[in-house]
């Protein structure tokens, strides 16, 4: 590919600065050409720190830049719909942070806008681009661990003291299910290749944090008597494991979603009483994500993970939040 796709970053969020932009800098197919903030000084400072050529003092100015091919949106959840639609209307392809929207209806509106504009819209679940997940899917399909009996996963971190954090704003789409619970939900759907039938979730809603769910635990039922048991939280010790249980074996991924060290991409397979380490070459999942999107854009092909998947994931998140609020099992 002779010409790299030019990316514009809509906002100076932490995830953009510490992960997505560095990942784009490593790409052979993409480059970061501009960044925008409603605070012009902040945009300029971030551009200087991260070697970005152009800084804009408004989101509108970035969308008006005809040289930009792709917009990355790391804004708070309640702003995803508005700016994804505006980016689509400006003719830009879009990578939007997870979860795609506040609910499945919003997600569907965003997908429709992208389709009408003829641009690609992708949800930023970077973990899916790690090569081990294709390996794990093949292991399951081969019967290496027998018949699937269940999946367990979790994603928790401890940050209750950051009172200004957007994750603690209910109307902005705050809460642990939106922020990290979406990962176990996504990976179970990815590995099983099917959609859940019902969910039951218990959550701790914290009055100190605008009544968002600071911790949640749930059961997500799939057909065939297989279920995901998960927990997620923003007021608990950090961890992000995944366990896939079969009749004849177990697959364990100690760090299922975060791969910030060479060994964190490895996983274990236990069969016939023997537990073996499967080593996987280290990759930057943010780079892999951007490159996959670039290949779809330049090749005119479908996304590796279609945005319709984001709508389906949002339906499960909607059901989880409803279950937690109403203390009830919710059918999907």
TrEMBL record:
InterPro entries to which the protein is assigned, alphabetical: Gfo/Idh/MocA-like_OxRdtase_N, Gfo/Idh/MocA_domain, GFO_IDH_MocA-like_dom, NAD(P)-bd_dom_sf
Domain Gfo/Idh/MocA-like oxidoreductase N-terminal: 5-124
Keyword annotations of the record: Oxidoreductase
Name this protein carries in UniProt: Deoxyfructose oxidoreductase
Nucleotide-binding in keyword set: no
Protein family: Belongs to the Gfo/Idh/MocA family.
Keyword Glycoprotein found: no
Domain GFO/IDH/MocA-like oxidoreductase residues, every copy: 133-252
Pfam families assigned: GFO_IDH_MocA, GFO_IDH_MocA_C3
Stored SUPFAM superfamilies: Glyceraldehyde-3-phosphate dehydrogenase-like, C-terminal domain, NAD(P)-binding Rossmann-fold domains
